[in-house]
Amino acid sequence: MLPFAVQSEGPYRLVGWSLGGVVAYEIAMQLQYVEFLALLDTFCPNHNTLRKHQWRSKHTLLNDCLLASCEEFYERRQNTNSKQAGLSDGAPSKQKYESINELKEKIDQLNFDALLKKCRELSLLPWYFVDRSDTEIQQYMRVC
Question: SUPFAM superfamilies of this UniProt entry (predicted)?
């Protein structure tokens, strides 16, 4: 609910949690007078971040999610391996990172199905996705 639906004149006091904090900030920027603005557990989007994601398609966001899942998996694996004796070189994970970075460069040119196929071919998928169907993985990515 917009603040002026309850209170027609300022000063306004706004609070936003998570994504609501970004919305509260934008409302504060558009109102004439804001007495108090609280942002709880809110990220601070910068101009470059907003422009980068402003017009991204649904498939591109799914692609971002898929590659982020792969990257996070290998990052955790690398951290675990580096703590164990004799496994600190990280050569296989370095190769995986390079493959992920190459796919990131092509992310806007691939639809989700093509990217998922590439990830399967390059063995980039985390173990918990390997036996899943493309549809199951896509459904998972939609909620990530």
Answer: alpha/beta-Hydrolases
